[in-house]
Amino acid sequence: MAGEVAKEETVVTKVKILKKTNVKPHKPLGKKECQLVTFDLPYLAFYYNQKLLIYKGAENFDETVEKLKDGLALVLEDFYQLAGKLGKDEEGVFKVEYDDDMDGAEVIVAAAEGIEVADLTDEEGTSKFLDLIPCNKILNFEGLHRPLLAVQLTKLKDGLTMGIAFNHAVLDGTSTWHFMASWAQLCSGSTSISVPPFLERTKARNTRVKLNLSPPSDAPEPAKSATNGDVIASVDPPLRERIFKFSESAIDQIKSKVNANPPEGSSTPFSTFQSLSAHVWLAITRARQLKPEDYTVYTVFADCRKRVDPPMPESYFGNLIQAIFTVTAAGLLLSQPIEFAAGMIQQAIVKHDAKAIDERNKEWESNPKIFQYKDAGVNCVAVGSSPRFKVYDVDFGWGKPESVRSGSNNRFDGMVYLYQGKNGGRSIDVEISLEANAMERLEKDKEFLMEA
Q1: Does the keyword rRNA-binding apply (predicted)?
Q2: Which CATH architecture has domain 16-203?
Q3: Of these residues, 252, 294, 395, 445, which one is catalytic?
C-alpha cells in the first residue's frame, strides 16, 4: 500500500550507560561569543531538539566510538557554538559563549545488546527511544548550565543508535543536518568540511532583546529516566506516534490530484510540500471528528534564509525559521476539494516575504513572548523538519541509517515531522503525533493511506 503504516511491536529497552565523556574542539580557539537574535530567542522554552539515527553494522563498537569522538572534535572547530554554553550579558541579552576551559559537547556511551535494529525500526511510538536519546524534557534555557549538544552512542545486537540532543535556541533543522553531514564527512576521511557554517547571526537580525527567564513555578515534579536521570514529563492526553510511508508513486498521485483543478486565477502549481500538507491536514481533521464550526490551524515552520533581506546563505548557522499559520473552520475545510486547503497553505507561504518577516520580528521585539512547544493552538497541525534534509546521506563510514526518527521532546497532538523516505527520490515519511482515538481513525482512513 502507498501509505504504509509502520509495523507495531512492543520492545522493552534495557540500556546500560557505560561512560560519559566530553569532547572539545580539536585545537584551542580562545574565547568566542555570539549574540542570540530574534529568530533564536522564542525557542528558549522549547525542549532540546532530539534525533535518533539507527545504523546496522559498525562491527567494532569501541573503535567506532573513538572514531566518532575524533570526528566530533574536528567538526567542533567549525561549529564551536555547540561546544559552548548559553550566557547572558550585563543587560540580560542571551548569547552563546565558548571558551577553551569549557567542557564541550557531552558524549554518552551505552549498550543495549538485547535489542536489534529491527526492534527499533518496526515499532510505532517514541517511548522506546527514551533511554537512547539524552536530554529528555530538558528546556533550552537550561543550556545556561548544560551542554548545548549531547550525543548518546548505544551498542545494539546488530548495530548502533546515535541519539542526539541539540539546544533548539542555538540552531534549527537546516543547521542541524548541515552539522551532521559535516561530522560524517570528517569521519569518512575528508580533511575539511565542504561548506563551513556562516556564523554571523547579527547579519540576519541585529537587535538586542533583553529577557528575564526562569523555570515555571507551577511546573509539576518531573519523573526521571531509569538510566540517565533525565527528566520525563507526564503526557496528557494520551498520544500515539506513527510513521506513514508514502512512496514516490503515492506522492505523485497526491500532487496530481491537487493540481488537477487549480483555483481560479491561480498561476502557480502546488508544490509537493503544499500538496502533501493539504492531504495530511484534511486527514487529521477528519480523524479528529471536529464540529463544523471548530477552527483548525495549519502551521509551517518555514526556512527564512532566502526570504529575509538581505538573503542569508544556506550555511547560516542558527535559527532562521518562523511559524506561518493558516486557519479555517473544520466544516468548510472538509466540504471543499483538496485544492482549497492547498491554496490556503500556498497563500500563507507566499505572503511570508521579507516585509512580513520584518514586521513579525518588530512586533515580537516590542513585546517578547517566549513560546512553549505546545502553544500552536487547539486543533493544530504543525509541520517540522523537511523532506529536503538529506538525513539518509549521513554516512560515517559504515553505511547509511536504517531509520531516522525524532525523539519524544516537543511533541503534542497534531505535531508532524516530514523526512525524506529511505528509498530516496520523491518518497516521504510522515511522522505524526495524535490523540490515541484520532490516530486509530487515521490508521483506517483509506483515502489518507492511498488505498481508496
Answers
A1: no
A2: 2-Layer Sandwich (3.30)
A3: 395
